[in-house]
UniProtKB/TrEMBL annotation, chain A:
PANTHER family: ABC TRANSPORTER SUBSTRATE-BINDING PROTEIN, LEUCINE-SPECIFIC-BINDING PROTEIN. One of its GO terms (biological process) is amino acid transport. Belongs to the leucine-binding protein family. The keyword Transport applies. This is Leucine-binding protein domain-containing protein. It comes from Leekyejoonella antrihumi. Residues 46-392 form the Leucine-binding protein domain.
TrEMBL record, chain B:
Keywords: Cell membrane, Membrane, Transmembrane, Transmembrane helix. This is Branched-chain amino acid ABC transporter permease. GO terms for cellular component: plasma membrane. The keyword Transmembrane applies. PANTHER family: ABC TRANSPORTER ATP-BINDING PROTEIN, HIGH-AFFINITY BRANCHED-CHAIN AMINO ACID TRANSPORT SYSTEM PERMEASE. It is found in: Cell membrane. The chain crosses the membrane at residues 34-55, 61-80, 87-106, 112-133, 140-157, 185-203, 224-252, 272-293, 300-322. InterPro entries: ABC_transp_permease, LivM-like. Pfam families: BPD_transp_2.
């Protein structure tokens, strides 16, 4: 390289570094004004952080979860804020990569002085952020990522999980199935799940639950198509050809929609009972193609949880966003409620104080009064399982919901016991 | 570069059309020239060293990322700028570097320092078979074949979860506590970066580097001279792979993890973007590109939901109107100023 | 495996291959004439599918048939715009420049699509006439699979007729080998490039519409299809329409076999296959070596 180029490089690098240093200095000073106010006691505002996946195949969930959080925050502020301070949401896209999620979180903590974190969807990102939560002593609430190892193998006191985890969910479904099938009757089972740890974990959890319940089953086909595959035709035709009685599907969102539509075109639902995570958003997307008679499971269906707070939430959500809340929005709202309740109780925004106060209590949320279990910080949220109705519900945009009565799997029946959890925790 | 048929009537030269390309290269190794040549890198290193004590910790953490990417992009540019080989598969080695550290800790409890040193060798070892296969193809087919390797590596990392922990990736306290401090981490990475760039600079300016450029300019003629083009390119691929893997190991200090997306073809795209933004015809261009890309990306991610739009637009403008990148433009500007200065005297 | 299972899976493989073929045919056609790899091909595909969901939203009954025209047209307009606005200025440059320019366009179009259509996954139903299944030697065969297979046959046949039996086709084939001769014989090469690129985009848009009733339509489908289309086009040999047909069949069959024999290896298997083909024939099965 010519000396002149070298010099140009030095000059420009130095220039850029100083500019960026100024830039970040500037932003941290604006962040500082908010954060400084949060740290001090002079009224003003306090920040909470949401780093979630706003691009890519799961963007629609994250978006809807974010809306739940934003509504919760605006409701909080309408009620006078918390400890005399208004709450602000700082958000960023983690681009579905753990390093970006971690870097978002670091910058939110150091620049924006957030006092709590919400939002990761993928368990890989969640586990990266969980470590940072412990490192910086900032609590993190998982309302979407439901990997059970977050609360067992990698547990830290700064993490809270409100969403039913990967142990509870398949167990709830197995319970429902065992109720439906005559004892000892042999059935054939197929599984269909995205080819990554969530898919494999959920499927093996489901089969293990069937074993525990002494269901007489035989696995005839297991397919693991890639996550968000453009074309699942080959995997599906292999499954169809195996003609199982029941299919446990661990896909979600767009993948589940695509599966349902293509399976429908085979007439697959006529002879096979499909079990899948059919939530409000999925049924709405599927419309009249919703698979009547299939078994759906949902983590927090707004229409099944009946209490006045939920009714108000649904009304406000609809007024603000023009649609009914998804499971993700509902859980996001409830997670903020838990944080706010704990913070009030602790009388401080300090993360460590919150972790001392919150576990073992029963914060009132739109989900009802659910305990945050002390041993693993898992909220005792039930899982809802039901059979998808033949007719659309005229009250909710003609969306097909679950038939009555549905099964509200009680937490104690489906979750690991505290002794089991303790054995797995570090 | 020679391409096909009519389309290359005004083929673009990778070296910036600076006014004094010839005069500087075969400079006599007299003491003054050597001194003058050493001034700039030493000054640059000094500036970067001082930054460790002036920047805030958030910026320092971002600078850690920048340093890892600077090595990644410069190593990729050995293929891109020197050998004229467009690889969309360098993430394979970057990811392998990260995974060497992470999996070494996970499965065999290897200490960080051991795996950090091991990483470039593992990268080189994996680069040999990949290079031997991919370099059988030319140009676009080479690019697509490296892309396939990138996707293959990604799929393997994602589906072999017993070994790699699948999509979750490997997280753990495998980075020594001292290096997790923003300043010490930065200083360590700076040292590694300076050494790596000096080595890569050596490669670029060795007879080997000259042969690579000659192959890029006229493959047939070099072949006719009895040079084994294939083996030279494989060697370049292996060297690049080793340094990409080192960059991956450096990245671990920032990310403290190894995960499949590091191997994906879009990750392979990063160093190419950086090289193009900074200028792939110059040695330090890719490193400058890494700096701009990373700070640009970090700021955009925080304040724009449409950061891809901005990135795409910037990339498009550079590719269309500024093909020699920022360094090329700076060099041109420098040339203009110098001529103006000479004219005045 | 009994006969009905065999039929189910064969038709599944064929329909997978068909949808891949329509996308890959456009990609390979553009490469054949213009010698450039268009990463934004995935964007045209996604916009075709998104346009279809909008049209069906407006006209729930006849929407799909209207979308079959509107979707490809949207892609065509985009393609012509991209060719005239961007690529035309880059023909003399290296591969890398064109590759990066189209990659930049993919990023831009992806974010613009989010602006227009939002982040939610969208979905449409197949038209009533083909929204069911019929029996064939004991297996249920989705009627819509037949639509996809038919579309692929029409596209393949149409391209074959165009390229071998029309003067336009002769020009398209000649432009790679001997552009000077074409210019001398009074052919407007610029128009020809725009036309071929537009046709490629149109095919991508058509594939988007055809696939929409079977798949979830939403963000991310652009980047996914482009990798799949690359694999097909590269295995078959870039520039060869017949190669694209063979490539898509190979992938369809390989995926089905993988799904049956080793499900968790199936996705890895595809890339391995591509690498093996490139190792043995670096220019693909029916491609020609680059000079």
């Amino acid at each position: 390289m010519k000396p002149i180029q070298m010099l140009a490089a030095v000059a420009s690098a130095a220039l850029l570094a100083s500019v960026s240093a100024c830039g970040s200095g500037g932003s941290s000073s604006t962040g500082g004004s908010a954060g400084g106010a949060a740290g001090g006691s002079t009224g003003g505002s306090v920040n909470i952080g949401v780093s979630t996946s706003l691009t890519g195949s799961i963007a629609s969930f994250s978006q809807s979860g974010m809306q739940g959080i934003q509504l919760a925050v605006s409701d909080l502020n309408a009620g006078g804020g918390i400890l005399g301070k208004k709450v602000k949401v700082v958000s960023a896209d983690d681009n579905l990569t753990p390093a970006t999620g971690a870097s978002n979180m670091r910058s939110m903590i150091t620049n924006d002085h957030v006092v709590a974190m919400f939002g990761p969807v993928a368990s890989s990102i969640a586990s990266a952020e969980e470590q940072l939560a412990a490192q910086y002593k900032v609590p993190i609430f998982f309302h979407m990522a439901n990997d059970s190892s977050l609360m067992t193998k990698t547990f830290t006191p700064y993490a809270f999980q409100i969403v039913p985890n990967t142990v509870m969910e398949p167990r709830a479904v197995a319970d429902y199935l065992a109720q439906k099938i005559k004892k000892g009757k042999p059935i054939t089972v197929g599984t269909f799940a995205p080819d990554y740890s969530f898919g494999h974990d959920t499927v093996s959890g489901f089969l293990k639950a069937l074993d525990d319940l002494h269901v007489n089953y035989k696995v005839v086909k297991q397919e693991f198509p890639p996550l968000a595959a453009t074309n699942i035709g080959s995997y599906l035709s292999a499954l169809v050809a195996a003609k199982p009685d029941y299919v446990f599907n661990a896909q979600y969102g767009g993948d589940l929609d695509a599966f349902t539509k293509q399976a429908e075109s085979y007439g697959f639902f006529k002879h096979t009972t499909v079990i899948g995570m059919y939530g409000y958003l999925d049924m709405k997307a599927l419309g009249s193609q919703s698979p009547a008679g299939a078994i759906g499971f949902d983590r927090a269906p707004f229409w099944a949880i009946k209490n006045p707070q939920m009714a108000t939430f649904v009304k406000n959500y609809k007024a603000k966003y023009g649609d009914y809340p998804s499971t993700w929005a509902t859980l996001g709202y409830a997670a903020v409620q838990q944080w706010a309740w704990g913070t009030k109780k602790a009388g401080s925004f300090d993360g460590t104080k919150l972790t001392k106060v919150l576990p073992g209590t029963t914060p009132p949320t739109i989900l009802g009064k659910l305990q945050i279990r002390a041993c693993d910080h898992q909220t005792e949220t039930p899982e809802y399982v039901g059979t998808i109705s033949k007719t659309g519900n005229s009250k909710y945009n003609g969306v097909h919901l679950f038939d009555d009565p549905m099964f509200k799997a009680p937490f104690d029946q489906i979750a690991l016991t505290c002794a089991q959890v303790k054995a797995l925790q570090p | 570069m020679s391409t096909y048929g009519h389309l290359d009537t005004d083929a673009h030269d990778v070296d910036p059309p600076g006014p004094d390309t010839r005069s500087a290269r075969p400079a006599p190794a007299s003491r003054t020239v050597l001194l003058r040549r050493a001034t700039a890198p030493v000054a640059l290193t000094a500036v970067m060293f001082l930054l460790a004590f002036t920047l805030g910790s958030t910026t320092l953490v971002t600078m850690q990322e920048v340093l890892a990417f600077a090595v990644f992009a410069t190593a990729t540019n050995l293929l891109l700028g020197q050998a004229g080989l467009v690889s969309f598969g360098q993430a394979v080695f970057f990811g392998i570097g990260s995974y060497t550290v992470a999996l070494g800790w996970l499965h065999w409890q290897l200490p960080f320092w051991a795996t950090f040193v091991l990483a470039p060798f593992v990268g080189a070892l994996v680069a040999i078979p990949i290079g031997l296969v991919a370099l059988r193809a030319r140009k676009l087919y080479f690019a697509l074949s490296t892309l396939a390797f990138s996707e293959l590596a990604y799929q393997l990392a994602e589906s072999r979860y017993n070994f790699t922990k699948g999509a979750n990736g490997v997280f753990g306290p495998f980075v020594p506590t001292a290096l997790t401090q923003p300043r010490t981490g930065y200083l360590f990475l700076l040292a590694v970066t300076v050494v790596s760039l000096l080595l890569l600079w050596k490669v670029n300016h060795s007879p080997f580097g000259l042969v690579l450029r000659a192959i890029r300019e006229n493959r047939e003629r070099v072949q006719a001279l009895g040079v084994n083009v294939y083996l030279h390119q494989v060697a370049a691929f292996v060297i690049s792979g080793a340094f990409c893997a080192l960059a991956g190991a450096m990245f671990v200090i920032y990310s403290q993890s190894g995960y499949p997306e590091l191997l994906d073809w879009t990750t392979s795209g990063w160093p190419v973007f950086m090289a193009v933004i900074g200028g792939m015809g110059t040695f330090l261009g890719p490193a400058l590109g890494a700096l701009i890309y990373q700070f640009g990306h970090d700021q955009l991610v925080l304040y724009f939901s449409d950061w891809q739009l901005v990135l795409g637009a910037v990339l498009l403008v550079i590719v269309m109107f500024w093909p020699d990148g920022l360094m090329g433009a700076l060099a041109r500007l420098g040339g203009v100023i110098r001529r103006w200065w000479k004219g005045r005297r | 495996m009994d006969l009905s299972a065999f039929v189910t899976q064969s038709i599944g493989a064929l329909s997978t291959a068909s949808s891949l073929f329509i996308v890959a045919a456009g990609l390979t056609l553009v490469f054949g004439a213009l010698r450039l790899i268009n990463i934004a091909h995935g964007s045209f595909y996604m916009y075709g599918a998104l346009a279809a969901t909008t049209v069906v939203g407006w006209f729930p009954d006849s929407g799909f048939w209207i979308a079959l025209i509107v979707g490809p047209l949207v892609a065509l307009v985009m393609g012509v715009g991209v060719e005239m606005g961007v690529l035309r200025r880059l023909y003399g440059r290296e591969h890398l420049t064109q590759l990066l320019a189209t990659f930049a366009l993919l990023l831009i179009f992806a974010d613009l699509a989010l602006r227009f259509w939002g982040k939610n996954v969208r979905s449409i139903n197949p038209p009533k006439v083909v929204n069911g299944n019929f029996g064939l030697v004991g297996a249920r065969v989705p009627a819509y699979d037949m639509v996809i297979i038919a579309a692929a046959i029409v596209v393949g046949g149409g391209l074959w007729l165009l390229l071998t039996h029309t003067t336009l086709g002769w020009k398209i084939r000649a432009v790679v080998d001997d552009p000077e001769v074409l210019v001398c014989s009074g052919v407007n090469i610029r128009m020809l490039y725009t036309g071929v690129f537009g046709l490629g985009a149109l095919l991508a848009g058509l594939a988007g519409v055809v696939i929409a009733p079977q798949q979830a339509v939403g963000p991310g489908m652009d980047a996914q299809i482009i990798v799949a289309a690359f694999i097909v086009a590269v295995i078959g040999g870039l520039g060869s329409i017949t190669g694209a047909a063979i490539g898509s069949l190979i992938i369809g069959i390989a995926e089905t076999l993988g799904a049956n024999l080793a499900p968790s290896w199936a996705s890895t298997f595809i890339y391995l296959l591509m690498i093996v083909v490139l190792a043995v024939r670096p220019w693909g099965l029916l491609g020609t070596p680059e000079r």
